Amino acid sequence: MKKKLILIVSLMLTVCILMTVFVGCKSAEEKEKEYYAENDAAVAEHTETLNTLMDKLFATGWKSSFVYAYTYYSKEITRGSTSVKGWPDDNEEMTAFMAFDVEYTDSQNYTIKTTVFKDVKREDYVKHIDKKNYREKFTVDKTFEYKLINGEPTADSQLNEGFNPIEVIFANINSEYILANGLTASDSMRFYLNDSFKLSNRFMRIETRAVYDSNGNVVTRDANAAAEKKFWTGFGEDISYDWNQVYSMDNDRLTVLYTKKNQQVDSLEIYNEDILSYYTQNNDVDKSLVLKADVIGFAEMVVEFDYGD
Amino acid sequence: MEENVQQEGFVDEAMPIQEEPSGGMSDDDLANKKYLKMRDYVFFSLAQFASSAVTGLVQGYLLFFYTVCVSIPATQVGVMFLVSKIFDGLDDPTMGVIVDKTRTKWGKMRPFLFFGAIPWGVLTIIMFMPSIYSAMGSTTAKVAFMWITYLLYSALGSIVGIPLQGLPAVASPNTDERAKIISISRILGSIGEQSALVLITLFLLITKNDYPNSYMLMALVIGVLGPVFMLLGAKFIKERLEPTDRTPSTLEGFKYLFKNKQFLLLICSNLLTFFRNFVSAMIIYVVSYIYNNGSLQIIFALPGAIASMIGMMIAPKLRKMMDSKKLFIFATIWHSIGLAIIFFIYLIGGTWWWLVAILMFAAMIPVGILNVIPHLMATDTLDYWEDKTGDRCEGITFSLMSLRSKVSSGFKDYVMSYLLVYFGFSQALPFLSDHTPVQSDFTKFGLFAIYTIIPAILNLVSIIPIMFYKLSGKKMAEIQGRLAVKRLEEAKRLEGLAVEGETDVYSVVAEKVAIDDIEKEVEMAKNQQEATATEVKESLLVADEAPAKPKRKSTKAKAEKAQASENSEQAQESVVEETPIAPAKPKRTAKPKTVKSEKAEDVKEDK
User: ipTM of the assembly?
Assistant: First the structure.
């Protein structure tokens, strides 16, 4: 019986070792090439779908009420230095947000009502925002109305600091945006698509990441520019960044729910993270300052479309 | 005193049966004799508590740890869980057979606990050490480490778990006592399962929601205390039933599964109950990503755990009102309806965490019932098989139940990890210090659906095999009636074989099979050697005067058989008198350690 036990344990270990060897048998370069080739193929495959969806969305009338929120920290976060903390203590999460009521007829004719609320603590925002009567739970700061008729805004039209959600929606979902910001301009970005089956609709996820150097320039992934390789090593799940070189990063995520049958967008969710590298205390025991990176602010917007049918 | 003790469910002193002459015992006395002491209950429950604490930690938190704390892709984790748990499930029956074949001075179960507990605990700690994963860097290395450690953990889990589950079956021959110790230890076990919850809540508060380090601290506490409790259990629990000489083959377990159709139906049904485990496994996701507050976990999980315990306690009472089959169906539907109500209330805006927690309390009561009923049904299938064939396969049955549990758990993690991917669950970016991505609304909806409506619907599938399950109501009553008569007859017979005041009657049960064999051999010896009776008698006379060793084995065997023949007749007379004389032991018979056996050896030596 001992033999059988040894046999079982040996088999299990063999499976583990074989799997490890199998996974690791390709060279890193080959795997990297394969990874980006798959990304390119995914872009090509889904660009058409996205174009069709967008064309239909902006050619159809719809209504929607939604919130755009930006969460930030109450104290300013800087990079700091080896002797100065970049992340201040007792930094509290706050959320600035505004609600939009949109009646969209076509790209030349629509109305946007904007309600700006006073900033609240993140925990209070989360506590109430999913409730139907959330507007009653927060303090309104100001309101605006923007009306576009035949491509011209009316005289009293106003947007809060020029923020037009229609442009945000359009810019994010348009395949040009993806091509411009996804892979061609900055190859360091990650592109991730998930198009899974659902009974009534489909789910698509697009993720992009842009990396910036100390001058605020986007770092591109160019096979011929070896110098730029100093910003990161690896790829995909295993990518790691040299925070001495990378100062900041944008991490964007767009989720689209759509009905396959009539190619109609049901909802889209835009999520954007601002990431910064900064000096902070290593831990409570080792209080020396080390360079780390984390999210210092994020924007979120979930738009559900009501086509009135 | 004895009656009071029995009413309370515990026996705290030496068993009176050992001091009472067996001849004065009624049928009821025979059937109700107690063997377990308080320390058996305490230490077995402690061991069960420890074992459940470790399995509760791994089953409830490892998926979250892998996917969120160390950023291993969910699909990779899902595949690993599925494959390794099927592996693990298959080695359970093998372990059952290994246990059945084990003969040591400590018994056949306890040695595995002695040697397996500490490595199991150490491995549990290693699996939850975030620093090991971060030192590895690449996902491939993390995945390989995950596979190796989890497979080893599973193998050690079988080495420790199977003997632990089998201990009640050898701790007492009294079925009521067994049921009691199982019931008490399962309640303690379910508390043990929640120990990880209490610890994680505590450590999250202390570390201010630092998940990786909280998980490591939790694993350290459980990984150290768990083996200590298991070792204490192994030290103090007694194996009272001696093993028979029959050692089943490895394949026998699997054959039994397909021969006993009722058991097969039960296993199939139970395999399909894995969806139910989504509820507890999803709590951490729901509180972290929907309610954005990890410390709410205890508020969600504890009422459910208490409700589950209530369910376990009321299960025996409900079983008096309806048979196991109906109760299984009733509890499954109750659970599904409860979960569906929570989902629909959430959909129409009832998203308050306190409302969900309260409603979940009501929905989780049947889970306790469903934790107990399959085990009672498994014992029904044992009775059914015994009634049908005369064999009783506890070891195989419970190792297959364990297999079912592990395979089911593997399915749970596999399906759950794919559902997380399907609903677009965003994992933390591995290159950031403490990244907690906000999940999209679609994902949040999905997380709540996995928590409620998905298990609610899929749970109902487990009812289908049970619809074909026949061991209920009248049929089971008939089977149990026949077995009761059979057992009473055996008890009476064994009562006669017990040595007055020196051993307990039921310890003889362990030798029943051996004694039956002896009698058969005696009978055969009688018939076969009738022709040479005179010659044998002469040789016996010579042997009595001068017990010289025969030169040839065959001669010795003949002499022993003939002697056994005489002894058998003598023994049968002695049964009626006061001192039973055990027949000579056949070669295949194991060596029981009971006083009776020692006496038999003495008799043999005397001769």
Answer: 0.73
